[in-house]
Amino acid sequence: MPDETALLIADVFEAAGALRRLGERTASAEGLTQARWQVLSVVSDDALSVPQAARRLGVSRQNVQRVANDLVSLGLATYESNPDHRSSPLLTLTPRGQESLARVTDRAAAVHHTLFADIPDEEIRTTRASLRQLLAALDREEGPTGKR
Question: What is the reported pTM?
Answer without folding.
Answer: 0.81
